[in-house]
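Notebook p. 47: complex prediction with glutamic acid.
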Amino acid sequence: MYTKLELEQFVKQAKQYARYGKVADYIPALGKANPNDLSIAIYTPDGSVIDAGDTTDKVTLQSISKIIALALVLTDHGEKKVFQKVGMEPTGDPFHSIAKLEEVQPAKPLNPMINAGALAVTHMINGASVEERFWRLLQFVRKLAGNPEISYSKEVAKSEFETAFLNRSLCYFLKQHGIINEDVEELMDLYTKQCAIEMTCVDLARIGLVFAMDGRDPLAGEQIMPPDVARICKTFMVTCGMYNASGEFAIKIGIPAKSGVSGGILASVPGRFGIGIFGPALDDKGNSITGMKLLELLSQTYSLSIF
Ligand code: GLU
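Predicted complex, C-alpha cells below:
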C-alpha cells in the first residue's frame, strides 16, 4: 500500500512542524537532541520494513518503556496482582502529576502510563537485585525487538537519576501508602535505566508489530506474551498512551500508541503492522509534534483508525 517514496514525502511534510515544538530538557541529557530529526519505520508480519528519515539514530524509550514493563509484569504476575497496585483509568493530568494521588481511595495510581503508576509497575519487576531486574527487562526488550544488541544510555540514565526529584516524591508517596516497599533510590536506579533503554525506530517498529500481532513475533514464530497481555497493553495505549492528549489522538489518528519525552512513538495497527517513530520536537503535552503529524498523515491516507 505505502511506498518508501511516499513515506519520505510524509517525513518532509511533517518536519515542517518541528519549529512549533521543543525538545525536553528537564532531563538535561535529552536537551542535546536535534528538534529537526525525524525517522519512521513500518514493520509488517512478513518481515519487510519500510523506513524513512534518520533511521540509524538511536533514541531512549522514556515513557514508551512503561508499556513494555507493564507487559513484563503482567506476564510474570497476572492481571489480578498487578491491578491491586495500579488502576485502569485515564487521568487527564500531565504524566508526572502528583495531584490525583490524594483524591482516590485506596491510594493507588490511576493507571500504569502516568509516572506514579509506572513506578509501581517497575517495582513489580522480579529479581533479587536492581541489576537482575534490569537484565530481565532488557532481555524482554531484546526479544520483542528481535535485536540482542539493544542496551541503555548510561549518560541519559545518570542525568535523570541526578535530577528526578518529582519522581522520588511520587515514590515516597507510594511507599507511605504501601504500594511499593523497596528502597526509593534502588527503584529510581531501575526506573531511570529502564527509561534510558535506547534503540532505533526500526527496533521500535518491530516491538509495535509484536503488540499488533497479539503478543506473537511472526518472524521468530514465538508467542512472547499472552494475547490477553498484549490486548491490555494496546487498550492502555488507546486510553492513556499519548498523555493527556489521548482522547484527541484517538479521534484524529485512532491507532494504539505510546509516546515518550525523547520524542519516540510506538504504534501498533492491530493485525497489520508496527510503527516506530522518533522526532524529538515535543508539543506542550510532551508528544512528538512531528511524529503525531506523521501518524496523522498515515492514518488519514490509508484509513488506519481502528474505530
Ligand atoms: N523518564 C521520564 C520521566 O519519568 C519519562 C517521562 C516520559 O517520557 O513521559 O520523567
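Notes: The longest helix spans residues 130-145. The radius of gyration is 18 Å.
Next step: compare against the earlier run before touching the bench.
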